């Protein structure tokens, strides 16, 4: 079963933008063994952990999942986990903070990159798309909290029928169209490979890689059930 160590090891390699074969060779082990480490099938020895920390320029505490800071500032496990259940789970407030960091950092990277692209239409559409998603989350929370939905100008029935979702999808259409038009006009795009993003956004790129990985994993699970 995958652990914080195995997930982090895999994400660091993907962020570096290199193949498993190349990483294994440079770390002095076989590709099969690295695959076992990244998938949580086998646990490495201390020598490999030390070598991997040097290779990916992170602390052992970060690699082992004891901190979110690459340089190694420790977070006490008792502050993170609720051990009242049979299997410890992240406390709600901490989980909210971690999710906020992932979303805010990824959005910051997105809009910074879009600013370099320079398409006002794409920037506006991206903002509208994300705003519509937040609107839906907040309105659903507002309703469950028993508040008066008269605060919102969109009718209750229209919201339930998917009007805001429709607006969100149209924003995505406008976003893709704006990027296509920018490309057709010969506009430039910054490099988005893992190594370039890591160099330009050393903190934000980590969150973005995690967001992309999380979504990919959920989609993989969905397709496996089909």
Question: Which structural class is indicated by helix and strand composition?
Answer: mainly alpha
Portion of residues within helices: 55-70%
Largest beta sheet: strand ordering: 1-2
DSSP summary: helix tally: 12
Rg from C-alpha positions? 21 Å
User: What integer is the average pLDDT?
Assistant: 84
Name the helix and strand elements from N-terminus to C-terminus, one letter apiece: HHHHHHEEHHHHHH
Shape: globular
Provide the low-confidence segments as ranges.
73-81, 86-90
Give the strand tally: 2
Describe the structure.
With 226 residues, this protein is mainly α. The protein is built from twelve helices and two strands; from the N terminus they run ααααααββαααααα. Helix 1 packs across helix 12, helix 2 packs across helix 3 (31-38) and helix 11 packs antiparallel against helix 12. Residues 73-81 and 86-90 have low confidence and may be disordered.
